[in-house]
Amino acid sequence: MKENKVRFKEKLFEIVGVLCLLFVLTFLFSIILKLFLDGLHRIFDLKFYTSYPSRFPQEAGILSAWVDTIYVMIGAIFWSIFLGVPAGIYLEEFGGKGRLARIIEANITNLSAVPSIVYGLLALGIFVYRFKFGESILTAGLTLGLLMLPVIVVTTRESLRRIPRAIREGAYALGATNYELVFHHLLPYSIGGILTGVIIATSRAIGETAPLLTIGALTFIAFLPPPPWEDFIGMLKSPFTFLPIQIFNWVSRPQEAFHKNAAAAGFVLLVLCLILNSVSYYLRYKMRKKYQW
Question: Which residues are CB-contacts of 38 (< 8 A; sequence separation ≥ 6)?
Fold first, then answer.
């Protein structure tokens, strides 16, 4: 009798879980479908991707928005990995397990829940006013990189913790130093988990507008930054816009045609996020296939 009751509870929990999953998937699919249908006539219009913003909705495009978004996100991913992964490695493998390490760990975990506008204010005071980077692509990449940083630090530490202790002991038994242990054994095996953190952080950062508006992102821009292979420094110092900011600008206008442009841009933003995540998923798959334990 008791066994039947336990099985009934397990089956009930399974059914509730499936229903919740279907509800979430239905909700997400409904949003994507609505964006697609509302912006259908602009999504398949090549002019929409090759034109600058305009006060005429039928001529407005997202050329500057999607190009600047890609530049900013590449910078954000670079800075977050460049700073976050070494920080996570140090805290987990070299920082010790004392009270100071626990305080730092707690603060880093809490930083992931800080409102994004706080990062914008921080970037405004440090990057714009103190370091004189201005309202540029470099400042935007650093700002979103800081926003992504806590997630990557935490996932780096968790990925290192998941590696079996036998690998550490085997490396030390063969005479490996701490440096060799980390970079020849631990880091290759944990790269899959680190890329998972990058995926999560990227998905959050690509939809942020508050910190970028705080540092001076433009809502209307009719030029592109110079290509990085021609003038890398000039590209970093160029003013910028961001795809969510362009969407917000169109949504705030009363004309229905601008709302359809916003729907098309929202669908493009989802596709862009999917592409960035797909690249991370592919790299994670290749790394996990290469380093299995």
Answer: 259, 260, 263, 264
Question: What DSSP string describes 244-269?
Answer: HHHHHHHHTSS-HHHHHHHHHHHHHH
Q: pLDDT (tens digit, 9 = 90+) per residue, 244-277?
A: 888 888 888 888 888 899 999 989 888 888 887 7
Can you give the pLDDT at residue 17?
A: 87
Summarize pLDDT for 46-80 with one digit per residue, the tens: 888 888 888 888 888 898 888 998 899 999 999 99
Structure tokens at 143: 């700002």
Q: Which among 277, 271, 190, 263 has a CA at the least distance from the CA of 37? A: 263
Residues 5 and 198: their CA atoms lie apart, in Å, by 43
pLDDT in tens, 137-167: 999 999 999 889 888 988 888 888 888 888 8
DSSP 167-193: HHHHHHHTT--HHHHIIIIIHHHHHHH
Please choose, from the candidates 274, 218, 216, 214, the residue with its C-alpha nearest in 3D space to the C-alpha of residue 245. 218
From the CB of residue 24, how many other CB atoms can be counted at a distance below 10 Å?
10
Task: Map out the domains of the chain with their CATH numbers.
Answer: 56-290 (1.10.3720.10)
Tokens linked to 98: 């004392």
